[in-house]
Amino acid sequence: MYMMAKHLHLTAVALSILLFLIRFLYGQVNPQFLQRKWVKIVPHVIDTFLLASAAWLCVILAQYPLVNAWLTVKVLGVIGYILMGLLALKWAQTKTMRWIGFTGALLCLAVTAKVAVTKDVFFL
């Protein structure tokens, strides 16, 4: 069960990141791309699997946010990624702000990945 949940989670992570990169970079060249129906729906489907597999892993491992520090930091990193992604894809009015959001999202992803791999909140 653990390996199935882990592989589902990591696949959803990879697809979510890949789709974010495609949406941002292609959206810089062709902003109308972000208005396509599948571009609006598919990320939510992938992120639903991502969240469900994360919850499944928490139950399997009996480790939970607000109980385990590394998992709390990981959840905060994901929230930061979401907010920065919204800045990059929706909220920003200028290209500079979109790139700041994109860079911030990637930084949040890097921190989240590092904490996930090391299970250490003091990774610096």
Protein structure class: mainly alpha
DSSP strand count = 0
Q: Whole-number radius of gyration?
A: 15 Å
Mean pLDDT score, rounded?
Answer: 96
Keywords: Membrane, Transmembrane, Transmembrane helix
Organism: Alteromonas gilva
Protein name: SirB2 family protein
Pfam families: SirB
Blueprint (SSEs and pairs):
Elements: H1 2-29, H2 37-61, H3 69-91, H4 95-118
How does this model look, in words?
This protein is an all-alpha fold. It folds into 2 domains: 62 residues; 54 residues. α1 packs antiparallel against α2 and α3 packs antiparallel against α4. The longest helix has 28 residues. It is globular. It comes from Alteromonas gilva. This is SirB2 family protein. Keywords: Membrane, Transmembrane, Transmembrane helix.
Describe, in short, the structure shown.
This protein has helices at 2-29, 37-61, 69-91, 95-118. It has 124 residues and is mainly α.
Keywords, please?
mainly alpha, 4 helices, 2 domains, 124 residues, globular, membrane
